[in-house]
Amino acid sequence: MSDPVPLTTDPGQVASATPPAPGRSRRLSDRGLAVAFISPALLLLLAMSVFPLLWALYLSFTDYSATRGGPARFVGFGNYTAILTSAQVHQRALTTLIYVVGAVTLQTVLGFAIAYLISRRTHGRGVLTTLFLVPMMLSPVVVGLFWRFMLDAQFGVINSLLGSIGLGQVEWLTRQRTALISLIVVDTWQWTPFIMLIALAGLTAVPKYLYEAASIDRASEWFRFRTITLPLVWPLLLIAVLFRAIEAFRLFDLVYILTNGGPGVSTETLSFHVYKVAFLGFNTGTASAYGILMVLVVIVLTQLYLRYLNKLKEG
Amino acid sequence: MRYQQRIGRMSVPGRKVRLATAAMLVATTMAACGDGQDDGAQVSAPKAPATIPELTTDPLTLSFIWFDWPPAQALEDFANAEYKKERPNATIKVNTVPNANWHDAMFTQFAARKTDFDIAILDSQHIGEAVTNGNILDITDFVKNNIDVTAYNPYLLAAYGQFPQAETGQRDENARLYGLPLLGDTWTMIYRKDLIGDQPPQTWDEMISVAEKCQADNPGVSGLAFHQANGSDAAAVTYNTVNGVYGGNLWDPKTRKIEGVLNDAAGQEAMDVLVNRMKPLTAKGSGNWFIDEVNAAVAQGKACIAFNWIAASGGLLDPKQSTLGTTREQILDKLGFATLPSQKTNLVPLGGMGMHVSAYSAEANQAEALNFMKWFERADIQKKWAAAGGVPARTDALESPEFLNAGPFNQVYADSVPRMRDMWNVPEYARLVDIENTNVNAALNGAKSPKDALDDIAKEQQAVLDSSNRRGGGGL
Q1: Residues of A in contact with B428 (CB under 8 A)
Q2: Interface contact A51-B29, CB threshold 8 A
Q3: For chain A, how many structural domains are there in total?
């Protein structure tokens, strides 16, 4: 119970002494209000994310097919065993691994280098940053389409440029090695700005006095970079790498547009393979197990990565 | 103090919220499980009425789904111009999707048991999957009462509607029908008369020799252009065509054996011809070419001999899209169209599609769809469809001057009809064709040796056919 409100002519005093919600019913308590406000978002999340995940988990233990209909027969861990022992899946996992390592490494090096160069500029920094961010704002499908034209062996601008400097035609999208490299290059073109942006934020946050102190000690440029810049930006950069690695791990759109997994299946990633299992044969149970396994891989790797990050911070 | 009290009050609603959430998830899951079990009752195609039900007089849109290519627009224009004369309240809408998404666009809607189209234009190979899943109407009784089946080459009627498939090339009178022909099609050989002469090569070996010489004599022009992409059925149809011409078989339908049949001596020879003799005559980087890319190469004068679907060849005669001439006549002075050369056999691939009524369409729309199909298969309408650029299926329309004079490649189609061979229309088609596409594409682009690619196709396709009773892991 709150104390009785004293009669007074000072409006300010009345306001401060009045309890927060004297006539509020129990249903409209702070907690009730919080629940009321959160519920729509919570329901949406449950319906659109949590339920499909649980439903996929259930289907992953069955041989259910979305088109064939019929009751879903329980197959235990049959789908999981088949996926984990499948040579086809191993091949796609290797392709995905090469792609993730290649693309994320290249993006990190380039992104950090660009950010470092931009951070040293005093003029035109905003304009440069904005320009570099443009590729990231485009739809991957659009990016895939115009790169497909640019990389075309017959009339693409890339081969035309190579031809003008006396180099021969390269079959960018139809040869095993060049197709995967092309995917890495296109993904790097689009997502290097993401790493750059986060690295730039990290570089901007490095306290100036550290550099001033280093200057007083006549430290070299390389020494300042190695002992001040890199250690302070590193944790933030690793978070950017984590995001990019997760994104790259589930790459689908660029593969679909640029190579359709070819030549043969040499650029088929795990996500592209899941798509085929799910929509070519409509093997919904197997595709669900495949998806769940991919989520598990990401969760486990992320946990290990975060632990490393925490250790780094503690250190 | 107040903070602690608030925490205490919060715990009860928090628990309630968690309990309610859990209950809701369980209820939703149970409901979804229930759905799955209900579906079990519907495993075969529902029947269409034998006679057309009373049609609505209210405005109605009859929707089709097809892939994006010139015949789709031609169908919409033709149907709205002609069908509206008899059914003014009906509007025809042909929804299109990219070719690569065509199967997925139809079958994901079928999977949801709700379609935004009334008539699915299915490839003949899709019929098995759609029938087995109960996605399209069984129109056997409707056809008996409304369609003159004697007016068609029996194989065409069978290819676009019958299930199980007409493996022998003959229609099975006792088999059920699930569709009617919409657009006939096959491959045509497109050749440069100004480069190789007026007479097209008659055998496959001769065709390769002529292409080889043409390529050597004309720098910058490749000897051949054909489908090699690993999407849709591109590379698969190319191999199947060569396989047929060299006397091979795709499978033994009676024993459902692929291994040892597809990769027998004839199959190996066909793959060797395709990869080692034909591929070197194609343009660099053409390993992902399909319909549009082959047409572009022909229109830009970059190929001596090309192979493409007839229904997609109309644009080659458009001076706006071609560098071969400024008028249709000038282009035709340089381009010739012929039936495919023969070798050990004279088989050609069957293309084209049929009309199939969605089992999930509204009753009024299903009735309108049946009425449209009956109207479309009339002799006079088939001739008008031919004149509008379509390829009809009725024999009288195929032999009519309206069809034969409508395009230089129409005679090619008429001559090819008795030579056609289709591939599987089993429910597993989508996976079988993907296996073949990716492996043929790999062989064409040097990612696999021809022999390994063919053996892998046979092994993997056999595994798909044999895996129907497998417990788990289906689809890998």
Answers
A1: 281
A2: yes
A3: 2
